[in-house]
Amino acid sequence: MGVSIDDVAAQAHVSTATVSRALRGLPRVSEATRAKVLSVAAELGYVPSPSASGLATGRTRTMGVLVPFVDRWYFGHAIEGIDQVLRENGYNLLLFSLGGYVHGQKRSFTESMVRKQIDALLVLSLGLSEEELRQLHHTEIPLLSVGGPVVGCSGVYIDDGAAATAAMDHLLGLGHRRIGHLSGGVQDERNFKVPALRTLAYRTAMERAGLEVRPDWIAAGDFTVAEGVRAAVQIFDAPGELPTALFCGSDEMALGAMFEAQRRGIRIPEELSVVGIDDHDFSAPAGLTTIAQKPWHHGRAAATMLLAELAGATGATRDTLMPFELVVRHSTAPPPG
Amino acid sequence: MGVSIDDVAAQAHVSTATVSRALRGLPRVSEATRAKVLSVAAELGYVPSPSASGLATGRTRTMGVLVPFVDRWYFGHAIEGIDQVLRENGYNLLLFSLGGYVHGQKRSFTESMVRKQIDALLVLSLGLSEEELRQLHHTEIPLLSVGGPVVGCSGVYIDDGAAATAAMDHLLGLGHRRIGHLSGGVQDERNFKVPALRTLAYRTAMERAGLEVRPDWIAAGDFTVAEGVRAAVQIFDAPGELPTALFCGSDEMALGAMFEAQRRGIRIPEELSVVGIDDHDFSAPAGLTTIAQKPWHHGRAAATMLLAELAGATGATRDTLMPFELVVRHSTAPPPG
DNA sequence: CTGTTAGCGCTTTCAC
DNA sequence: GTGAAAGCGCTAACAG
């Protein structure tokens, strides 16, 4: 059925070894033979078998990408960036999604899924357990994280503390003093520290400004709109005065808070300022002020580094901080009064 | 470095063939030997080489998934569903994203990316060109589309015409007579008919109700929020009276229209009703009335069928219509007056 | 129930 | 510059 390298060799009247060299652009092949081989291969519609060359070389030209979800803003865009550079370099992208099972027994990622199957692994914003990390390092394939720090391997991400601080400084600069917070990452996310970093920056900024951190002005979500609504409800329903501003751990949560505020007739930004982190696709249309980051670029940068490492550039994968930027839109203004 | 089947065979004092049978759960192996092999394999940390077995069997236990984007609602969720059933069945998911290059020369999907690499291909809501379709069918691997009809292969999707009609009937039932439309798919999407089907249903419903289809009440977008805003602006800015309702080709566009309406002080649903299709994650929080579909289920269903087909159940992949449902929330009401 | 023996299709020394 | 031949690790007859 499939035409093999032998067919090409026969047709071109050369050995399989020569066909192999010619097709891969290796030296030690005369231009005449190379041309001949190329034309015969094209004519026959020859496509090399990845399994065969994988077996022979030990490399699969496939990169694994491990994600907690594919249907969430950050991951979708990061994967898109990764896919693009992989494609440009003739690499395949093997996707492993935990589908939300960030922890627990339903979580099904194991070393065996990866062994002898991929040349390197990109881990997206994921807290790997000690055991998983151990297994992964044991496979000895290059590893790189994207979207947040992961112990034991380098990563590509923004300085979450600084980003959150920039958001807080914006609010503080506007004159807000009663600032609430929708935090991300409800529970134990193991080694994944992003939500905690952002929340820590909130507390630090408040204290630095000499402001009180009121527990009833902090609510936890999981980075989604739905949870943003839930967290906002919790804060809005709390007895006592409301904050004049909300710093949200993600744009989705910020948007959720905006929806809930609108539902209650709380005017934004007149009565309440809202700022998020991400610059989600919905943020510009909704007029949300945010700290923008570009997961697509993160993916590209990470994949590029990993490819360089595979190409032999030892040390090509290093921790690298990506830029972020405050984008002021219409959800923030000085506090009322 | 890697421990091979021979190592296991040696340690277990059996032949490689026996190890192979034992590990794959084939018959004709005594329980005693099977147990022995299993324990030795575990002890040695043996993991079979996909390349080797792929070479030997001609099957890779990998399914390809071709998508126009991974960072869009429908696709992200569909991929999640696909990934899950693949994982449950020991299959790998090789992702091919066109990254938005739905057409044009930057589009890089070719037969060679697929040949000898995957056992089957899932094509997500994508209009393949005649040439691509020809190449794909030429590879003779099972094909199945998800999210919309693709000529030449079966598919899993909702009846878009009926879904759009349900949305229109809701509006009509509420008493609306001036209904505008945000259509999807701006330009030539080749063989991808979903946007056109929805728009056709709009026209048909209008005519059936004896209502005028006004060109200035129809604006085209590309299914995204940003385009929804743009299209809404176009309609809102048109001279003459405004429609009292908007039927949008996707929830993202509907949400964009809602943002724009809010910006202009057009009250929803008092002055304007908006209905979409999808039940996007943002729809419930935003209170958008919509026709809900479940891409995650579509993905699961499609992957399951393809796997069955691969397992030998000829004809397992057939056209199958998935359910949809009107979800009434707070963006629709009877027209003013 | 188990072992032997060919490959699967490609890469890679090592000769020539 | 080119060819011969030995694998890479596993599966699949075919014997026994």
UniProtKB/TrEMBL annotation, chains A, B:
Domain of life: Bacteria
Lineage of source species: Bacteria, Bacillati, Actinomycetota, Actinomycetes, Micrococcales
Protein name per UniProt: LacI family transcriptional regulator
Keyword Thylakoid: no
Domain HTH lacI-type: residue ranges: 3-57
Stored PROSITE patterns: HTH_LACI_1 (PS00356), HTH_LACI_2 (PS50932)
GO MF entries: DNA-binding transcription factor activity; transcription cis-regulatory region binding
Keyword DNA-binding found: yes
Annotated keywords: DNA-binding, Transcription, Transcription regulation
